[in-house]
Amino acid sequence: MTNEKENAVRQLFEAYRVKDRAMIEPLLADDFTFTSPYDDAIDKQTYFERCWPNSERIEQHFLEEVVGSGDRVFVLYLCRTREGKEFCNVETFDFEGSRIRAVNVYFGAAYADGVFQPS
What we know:
It is built from three helices and seven strands; from the N terminus they run ααββαβββββ. By secondary structure, it is of the alpha+beta class. A hairpin with a 2-residue loop joins β6 and β7 (115-117).
């Protein structure tokens, strides 16, 4: 059974697919932070300035695992870009009530035309 937090995470990925920032904004807590190998706990404004433009490159996310436990949702996904590249990532979403307080991204392997692309 899918819970409310898992649905919120699915909605965030859908917003990237349809390029609708307004779908994401109410999902994020006021003190939201985003961390990835390129970003160290950036705030919401910086996230939208730095990360949201990447939505234009994304063709589709294929959510392979979405698992909620308490105030955390774990997601494993495959992303396909408009340029035909694919990569797998893991993200954790930490919630404060019904809103996403923090996202942590862990990069995985990348492929182009089914061929592994080393970093």
